[in-house]
Amino acid sequence: MSETDQGRAGPVSWTRVAIIVACGAAASALGFLLPSGPAVEAWYLAFVVGSGLAVGSLGVLMLGHILGEHWLDPVRSEAEAAARTVPLLALFALPLSVRLPELYPWLADPGATGMSGLRQAVLRPDMILLRSALYLAVWSALAYWITGTRHPWRASAIGLALVAVTATAAAGDWIMAREPRWQSGLFPWAFVLTQLLAALAGGIFLSLLRGESPAGHRMVSLERALVTLMLLAIWTWFAQFLIVWLANLPGEAAWYLRRSGSWLLALEAALAALGLALVLLIPIGVGHRTMIAGSALGLLAYGLKMLWLLRPAAPDPALTFWDLLVPPGLAILWAAWFAAAHRRRPTFHSERHAGEEASAPPLSSGKPTQ
């Protein structure tokens, strides 16, 4: 970050910060009072979705610094603000820390799962809590380090390795461990690719929605990054399914069967339709409105994918009014924290490359920029 960039950051409103932190702490306290069952599952869904956006934004930020800041500039302020929401997610995690027997019902009789002694030891409640605290602490430290340092490339080179390890491990602890008979080496990577895709889609959506106008070649770079991540995520999820189908693995096949009943089958069809729409909607060289629509569909697909992954692990996967109450409430707090962080982030590309942006040809014809 240059000195000019730092100078454009808005002043800190400690009153606003204190109000948001107090609201987050109050929501966390209310989380301890939630009734068992669907309310806890709704809270867990919101926590995982928010964590994915924050960690995915951190990953996008670090990849952007390593590949070149010019590519990252149009969505850099959004990625930085989203990455800085990790401390709020740590508050959201506190009520879940006392609900592990509900989230992991097999803890009542680990021997019945058929897991090895080593895996049972690794998935003890205290070990899950310890690792989860470590994940959140590492992500918080990296978010504030990378968004505050004058040498983001060096910090990103170190941080990307840490995030790759912790994010894939978190996918194992928070998602796969709920169904211990399910094992997959591809799942953590598919999960992380989905987080990166959602974070980039969210950054593009917000950047274009607030009227930013990146130069044509930068817009094409974002389009290529979005399509590349989308195809990687789709292929990784499909490869995982193909391996299970070809190998006829009973435990893994049961995992898919639990996600193909009742409304979950319709949700799966909707996800496939959204994936196809995204591939067709975002060819290289599209206009801003199409990119806004495509990135919005990407965010919708991410939310539906998380619901499809998480809810079948619950004793009762049915949707309830808690799903209409808890996730939107936590989303409002997350958005408030994001907005407060975003006010402190400068608009990098419009200031540092004003001359280049003005001379770049507009991207409105629907044709690829030459």
Helical fraction:
over 70%
- Judging from the principal axes of the Cα atoms, what is the shape? globular
The helix count comes to: 17
How far the N terminus sits from the C terminus, by CA atoms, comes to: 30 Å
Low-confidence stretches: 1-10, 350-370
Beta-strand level of the residues, as a percent range? under 5%
Largest sheet entry: none
Question: What is this entry, summarized?
Answer:
By secondary structure, the protein is mainly alpha-helical.
Question: How would you sum up this structure, described in words?
Answer:
The protein is mainly alpha-helical and 370 residues long. Helix content is 74%, strand content 0%. It is globular, with a radius of gyration of 21 Å.
Topology:
Elements lengths: L2 H6 L5 H18 L6 H30 L1 H15 L2 H12 L2 H4 L13 H6 L2 H22 L5 H23 L12 H23 L6 H32 L2 H8 L5 H19 L6 H23 L11 H22 L4 H5 L1 H6 L11
Helix pairs in contact: 2-5, 2-15, 3-4, 3-5, 3-8, 3-9, 3-10, 3-14, 3-15, 4-10, 4-11, 4-15, 5-8, 8-9, 9-10, 10-11, 10-14, 13-14
